[in-house]
Design brief:
Layout: H1 2-24, E1 29-37, E2 42-49, E3 56-57, E4 64-65, E5 68-77, E6 85-97, E7 101-104, H2 118-128, H3 133-140, H4 144-161, E8 169-178, E9 182-189, E10 194-200, H5 204-213, H6 217-222, E11 225-228, H7 232-241, E12 246-249, H8 251-272, H9 275-281, H10 285-289, H11 297-309, H12 311-323, H13 332-344, H14 352-363, H15 365-373, H16 379-395, H17 401-427
Parallel strand pairs: 2-6, 8-11, 11-12
Antiparallel strand pairs: 1-2, 3-4, 5-6, 6-7, 8-9, 9-10
Helix pairs in contact: 2-4, 3-4, 4-17, 5-7, 8-12, 8-14, 11-12, 13-15, 16-17
């Protein structure tokens, strides 16, 4: 009777291990032992190769090997099963490769030497897309540095597996990172909206390094246009490495210079007026920097009362608003004529900040007219900078620029895929 009970118990154990094999779902591997700790909520599974799975692959060169040196065990963390934290102990072979020597075998479920399975790292990586590493670490009961390392490996595998889009239009801008590192040079693809490179500082050498090391000569020849601000080191680097491409100056930065001119006029009038009228100009800075069509009726009323009392501020605001129409033209001759008339109207207005602005526009006239020759998306560069700023604030800074670049790439591609999915769903 005791022998029969042992046989029945052994069969039940085999059935349970077979069920755990189906639940685990590792192709080519079976569970031969399991252990459940109900108090600690932990599940531990021991797995080995199935009888028909005898293919050994070298982790160094990827060739098939038939000779192994020894069998050893490796413990990794896998996806949680219900409430239980799951750990898998897998039997692995140390093989002898004719080219690489003694190496560990390559297993698809174990992409790195870290004690985590591939699908567990994908789970952590997807969680890091919508939350900070510290929040994910608390949820997964891991250290913050461990979560960041997992996320970096997940992004590296994603970047290596995807097809790189063609680069025909490029954007270059700087991003203020902080007092210590100051500026970052951000290079992005204007057509896809994803960043391509992050370089320290905003020097000519920074952009030269991108063209030299990250782009081939064939890729550089395919670039048709570069959207950039009026920073001289960027222009010199682009002219050296991309002589065939057209430099298009960003409308945002041109209007930023116009807003600075309006603010200079406001400050000059603020100090020139007496104490009685000074209160009317004080506190109107953000109203003067806003576009008229974006203001509410009470805000427009405040500006109209200011314009009635101060003609110079009124003229400066009109010049700033009229400059915005420059990019409505589609022919470079019409655009050039409009800019020439805009400059002629400044002649007797005694607005020195706008006279400096006009001289700067004339100096960079060819880059402004290139907008009519080659259409570019102006808002992409600022959108990429906004995504980078969001990631930096959420992560409280990044020491690894490669990690920050991959996070921004993943964010840009995920947003594009989400918009495409919504458009297809709406059309259906």
């Amino acid at each position: 009777m005791g022998f029969c009970e042992e046989r029945i118990s052994d069969r039940l154990g085999r059935v349970r291990d077979t069920d755990w094999t189906k639940i685990l779902g590792w192709p080519g591997y079976r569970v031969f032992q399991h252990e459940i700790d109900e108090e600690q909520k932990r599940l531990k599974l021991w797995v080995r190769r199935k009888r028909g799975n005898r293919k050994l692959v070298c982790s160094g060169c990827g060739r098939r090997v038939y000779q192994f040196v020894e069998v050893y065990e490796r413990e990794v963390r896998d996806l949680p099963c219900f409430e239980f934290q799951t750990t898998v102990v897998i039997e692995l072979h140390r093989i002898r490769c004719p080219d690489c020597g003694v190496k560990a075998e390559r297993v698809e479920q174990l992409p790195s030497k870290a004690p985590f399975s591939k699908r567990f790292e994908e789970l952590v990586g997807r969680a890091c897309e919508s939350a900070s590493a510290r929040q994910v670490a608390g949820r997964m009961r891991l250290a913050g540095s461990t979560v960041r390392a997992i996320d970096l490996r997940y992004l590296e595998r994603w970047e290596a597996s995807r097809r790189q889009p063609a680069l025909r239009q490029m954007g270059v801008d700087e991003l203020y990172k902080g007092k210590k590192d100051k500026f970052l040079t951000v290079v992005c693809n204007l057509e896809t909206g994803e960043p391509l490179s992050l370089g320290k500082e905003r020097k000519k050498e920074t952009l030269d390094d991108f063209f030299r090391n990250q782009l081939t000569a064939r890729q550089r020849k395919r670039i048709e246009a570069v959207c950039v601000d009026m920073w001289e080191p960027y222009r010199l680097s682009i002219q050296e490495w991309l002589p065939q491409s057209k430099i298009v100056y960003d409308r945002f930065h041109v209007m930023q210079h116009a807003n600075e001119a309006v603010d200079e006029v406001r400050r000059a009038e603020f100090f020139r007026q007496g104490p009685k009228k000074r209160g009317l100009i004080k506190g109107k800075r953000w109203l003067l920097l806003s576009r008229w069509k974006n203001l509410t009726l009470p805000q427009r009323g405040d500006l109209n009362r200011l314009f009635q009392l101060n003609r110079r501020v009124f003229k400066a605001y009109l010049f700033k608003e009229s400059l915005e129409r420059l990019w409505q033209y589609r022919y470079e001759g019409a655009m050039n004529n409009y800019l020439r008339r805009w400059i002629e109207q400044l002649r007797w207005q005694r607005l020195k900040p706008f006279e400096k602005l006009a001289a700067m526009l004339v100096e960079h006239l060819d880059g402004l007219l290139n907008y009519c020759r080659t259409k570019v998306r102006f808002g992409v560069v600022e959108a990429v900078n906004a995504n980078l700023r969001l990631l930096i604030n959420r992560g409280r800074g990044y020491k690894n620029l490669r990690y920050l670049l991959l996070k921004a790439k993943r964010m840009a591609v995920t947003n594009t895929e989400l918009v495409a999915f919504r458009l297809v769903k709406k059309a259906a």
